[in-house]
Structure to design on (382 residues):
């Protein structure tokens, strides 16, 4: 398989557990949580000075498996095209770390995890978490790996929120920040889409107020939530190009079956999503995104010019996280005298562009990181 030859090859997910009693993690809500396990993967080699570490942060439904392949699975990591030898995050130069977020369902502690007090899944006993809590947990992992300062934090969508939160929470711990297709805070429209997804899940009788782990999760509600979300990831142009008004069969069925290819596609995406994601994690993570707000004075709490340098990327056809939100971020950073480079990439893919526009992103990120690593003041390629 050619893709395997171009990737970093086989990788394994590792697990780090911390915050055991009495040292539970204090969350932004004031609640305490522990012990906590974080699933993570690393690619490349940490140099002697431990100065080449890059933390890549996944979007809403992602996980720790960002690159390479797992044994017996032909599906590569979610950013495989960007991480590896000679790629944007060049594993011959950088030590790349990826972890599943707190509240997730792919190895890190979340609502589906066993509550040590009851020996049953937490379900809705799991405390409400925030993006700041996710980053606080990630810092525990970075400390465990012996890294005092990250060369860069980078991610798209919710990953971009985490990257910004790293700068806000631990400005002295990051040399550079790469937020992609993201925002400093959710708009009412973005909150509204999340709420529709949550309501679809909670309206499914199988949800059972979150206590469904013995009876099976609310598949239909979660599938509908994913269908709604997936529409926002694409653009009108990309949907027209991919589907237009193509029919699955010759002529209409004059029924409520999936007549149009776009209907069948959304049902397929929804049905597949329920096989790999936990409905309660959907609720908790979307709520964390809605609570996120690092705008205004919250963006840089310390006085003086921020030391971290920024590469902010957005995409022309992204209507879920439109370029206007990235431009507002840039304006606020420049008002604080931060070193910021901004690029709006032309793409017809919509929000999904941050996973698909590999060539453009690779050039921009590759040159930016090279300059950060070598201490150059300007990003010549941009």
């Amino acid at each position: 398989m050619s893709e395997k030859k171009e990737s970093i090859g086989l990788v394994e997910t590792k697990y780090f557990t911390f915050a055991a009693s009495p040292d539970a993690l204090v969350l932004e809500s004031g609640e305490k949580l522990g012990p906590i396990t974080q699933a993570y993967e690393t690619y490349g080699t940490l140099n002697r000075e431990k100065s080449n570490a890059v933390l890549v942060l996944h979007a809403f439904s992602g996980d720790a498996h960002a690159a390479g392949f797992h044994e017996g699975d032909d599906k590569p990591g979610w950013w495989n095209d960007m991480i590896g030898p000679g790629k944007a995050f060049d594993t011959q130069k950088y030590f790349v770390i990826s972890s599943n977020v707190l509240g997730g369902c792919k190895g890190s502690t979340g609502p589906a995890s066993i509550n040590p007090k009851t020996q049953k899944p937490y379900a809705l006993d799991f405390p409400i978490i925030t993006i700041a809590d996710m980053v606080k947990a990630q810092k525990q992992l970075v400390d465990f790996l012996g890294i005092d300062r990250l060369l860069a934090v980078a991610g798209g969508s919710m990953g971009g929120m985490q990257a910004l939160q790293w700068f806000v929470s631990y400005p002295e711990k990051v040399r550079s920040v790469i937020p992609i297709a993201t925002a400093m805070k959710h708009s009412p429209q973005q909150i509204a889409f999340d709420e529709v997804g949550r309501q679809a899940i909670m309206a499914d009788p199988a949800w059972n107020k979150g206590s469904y782990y013995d009876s099976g999760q609310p598949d239909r509600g979660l599938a509908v939530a994913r269908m709604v979300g997936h529409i926002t990831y694409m653009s009108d142009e990309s949907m027209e190009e991919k589907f237009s008004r193509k029919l699955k069969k010759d002529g209409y069925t004059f029924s409520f079956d999936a007549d149009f290819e776009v209907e069948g596609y959304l049902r397929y995406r929804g049905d597949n999503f329920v096989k790999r994601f936990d409905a309660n994690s959907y609720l908790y993570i979307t709520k964390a995104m809605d609570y996120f707000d690092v705008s205004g004075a919250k963006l840089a709490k310390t006085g003086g010019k921020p030391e971290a340098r920024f590469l902010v990327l957005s995409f022309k056809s992204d209507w879920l996280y439109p370029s206007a939100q990235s431009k507002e971020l840039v304006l606020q950073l420049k008002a604080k005298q931060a070193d910021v480079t901004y690029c709006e990439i032309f793409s017809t893919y919509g929000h999904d562009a941050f996973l698909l526009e590999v060539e453009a992103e690779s050039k921009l990120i590759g040159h930016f990181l090279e300059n950060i690593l070598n201490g150059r003041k300007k990003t010549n390629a941009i």
User: Anything to note?
Assistant: The chain has two domains: 2-184+293-374, 190-288. The chain has a mean pLDDT of 95.
